[in-house]
Design brief:
Blueprint (H helix, E strand, L loop, with lengths): L2 H5 L3 H9 L5 H19 L2 E4 L1 H6 L14 E5 L27 H8 L3 E6 L33 H8 L5 E6 L5 H7 L2 E4 L20 E6 L2 H11 L17 H5 L7 E4 L11 H16 L3 E4 L6 H27 L10 H12 L2 H9 L1 H11 L5 E5 L15 H13 L2 H18 L4 H6 L3 E8 L6 E7 L5 H14 L10
Helix pairs in contact: 6-7, 11-12, 11-13, 12-15, 12-16, 15-16
């Protein structure tokens, strides 16, 4: 098998070849490794290669496993593999190695996947772009001057470049759906609690963050969620078992759906015309497929992001910085993390427990608002992001902002910190005005690659959000959209 043939299969397709003894897992690992060595120097998607480890585990494999012998990548955040590097985009953790394996990773390995590396992520997954200082930026295979999104940008770039057919991704504010949009992939964030994050975490980001993957096909994403879903001992958000495997949903035609759509920007600013065009294009396709589509007022408010979600980020960042002490074996210092991370940490430490709790309660307002929305509409359709993939560095602090961050951090000036962070947050939320709301409400939400810009041929995703627990509805619609407007063969030029 050559690379072109390798790339013509998704993960389930490769596994079927292994099961039929038409190819050996070691050969698949060798092809994936060769591809990684060819493109990764330019893309910087894989930061911790585990190629030899994957090759050593390529024989024997359980040919009855779902993904028998398929090469795979882990995002270097939230889930761990014992004995391998786990840096979470943080320079202070560059040489840290995991002490135990996460339950999700155990399930992935039991499903036959051969883990061949860890992918790049921003420090602690805090930004919707992937430019950690310790490892440098990851680049988009569609245009290497552009971002692959974040925080799962390394995984998305690797999959879009054809290294592996899919890779893990996590989503606390859009980090599966954003890079899926930027890289022309499918990405679904599951409902809160659908898959466990233990034993390292009971919940992540107050339950906002969930794990799944970015993939080139809908069925790979569905099959992977079938592998990792289900509670473990101590899971804080027990979930109901779906009526049938998600993989079976993909081939089922959905019932005619009533879909409310909006291109209104949560912050009230003008979005990229390409993102609006992506939704308009999706609406036409949905109507052709027999669904009812209706423009609706956006059920989100500016304050949901700027006064509520941001408090969670501040508090969780402070907790993360403090918990670094356990891994470092000493108190965390300002120099251990990036300047913007330390500022968020200072702000998190300055927030009273009362204010944090009040902000967290307001998440329930978002949940009730969306529950009321779904009394009338089966799904909400919006752009995934408010801009086509932007140039590397565009959302980084300016030189002036960077100098101010350094002064704030050195002197511990909390009042100045809040004003500066508000300004930076507005810049970030202007790019992701829709994705964090499903994290707050716990709803499943997916980005589907149905549109490429006319000028640069850059991908732009359409985002569909369903009621809590209705991943089945999303997978049925995604399968229908994939059959009607296939994207698998649409790949970046070499």
């Amino acid at each position: 098998m050559n690379f072109s043939e390798y790339r013509s299969y998704d993960a389930l397709g490769l596994a079927q070849l292994v099961k039929q003894r038409e190819i050996k897992p070691a050969e698949l690992v060798q092809i994936a490794t060769a591809r990684a060595e060819e493109v990764n120097p330019q893309l910087n998607a894989i930061i911790h290669p585990l190629y030899e480890r994957a090759l050593e585990r390529a024989s024997p494999v359980d040919t009855k496993a779902t993904f028998a012998g398929v090469p795979f990548l882990l995002k270097d955040l939230m889930i761990e593999l014992a004995g391998t590097p786990f840096s979470e985009g943080c320079g202070a953790l560059k040489n840290y190695r995991s002490k135990e394996t996460s339950e999700i990773v155990r399930r992935l390995q039991s499903a036959g996947l051969l883990i061949m590396g860890k992918t790049n992520t921003p420090e602690f997954g805090l930004t919707p772009f992937t430019e950690p200082r310790v490892f440098g930026p990851t680049r988009n295979p569609w245009n290497t001057e552009r971002t692959p999104g974040g925080s799962s940008g390394g995984s998305a770039a690797a999959v879009a470049a054809g290294i592996t057919p899919f890779a893990t991704a996590s989503d606390g504010g859009g980090s599966i759906r954003i890079p899926a949009s930027c890289c022309g992939l499918f990405g679904l964030k599951p409902s809160r609690g659908r898959a466990p994050l233990g034993p390292q975490h009971g919940e992540a980001w107050q339950g906002a963050a969930m794990e799944n993957c970015v993939s080139r096909t809908v069925r790979d994403s569905a099959a992977l969620l079938d592998v990792i879903r289900g509670d473990m001992i101590g899971s804080p958000f027990p979930t109901a078992t779906p009526t049938r495997p998600y993989l079976e949903e993909v081939d089922q035609a959905p019932e005619p759906l009533r879909i409310g759509f909006s291109t209104q920007h949560t912050l009230g600013v003008r979005g990229d015309r390409a993102c609006i065009a992506a939704v308009e294009n999706s609406c036409r396709l949905l109507e052709e497929l027999g669904h009812q589509v209706e423009e609706v007022p956006l059920p989100f408010f500016r304050e949901d992001l700027t006064e509520v979600f941001i408090f969670m980020i501040m508090g969780e960042t402070a907790a993360t910085v403090t918990s670094l002490e356990t891994k470092l074996g000493r108190p965390t210092r300002r120099q251990d993390v990036e300047p913007s991370t330390w500022v968020l940490n200072l702000l998190g430490r300055s927030i009273s427990a009362e204010k944090f709790a009040l902000a967290r309660r307001r998440w329930n307002e978002v949940s009730r608002r969306m529950a009321n929305f779904h009394q009338k509409y089966d799904l909400l359709l919006t752009p995934a992001v408010a801009s086509r993939p932007f140039p590397i560095g565009a959302l980084q602090p300016s030189n002036g902002e960077e100098r101010l961050l350094q002064v704030i951090n050195r002197l511990g000036l909390g009042s100045l910190a809040r004003a500066n962070v508000d300004q930076l947050a507005e810049k970030v939320f202007a790019y992701i005005p829709w994705t964090p709301l499903a994290n707050m409400s716990g709803q499943p939400s997916m980005s589907v690659p149905l549109y490429w810009t006319e000028e640069e041929q850059l991908p732009v995703g359409s985002m569909f959000t369903a009621p809590v627990g209705r991943e089945d509805r999303l997978f049925r619609l995604a399968g229908q959209l994939e059959r009607a407007r296939p994207w698998f063969d649409r790949i970046p030029e070499e």
